[in-house]
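We store sequence, tokenised fold; for instance:
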Amino acid sequence: MSQTLRRSDSDIKSAVIDDGAVTLSGEVDSYPEKLMATKAAQRVHGVTAIA
């Protein structure tokens, strides 16, 4: 079981502004849902890389 790191919105915003990289975690029921989550993250201003 992996541990989830909880961060505040302001911490996340600062990290995106500094790095442009985000990591998505969690579970979805299908591959299309994974693609939708990735596309949603790509639409966030400042995001340049997604893991």
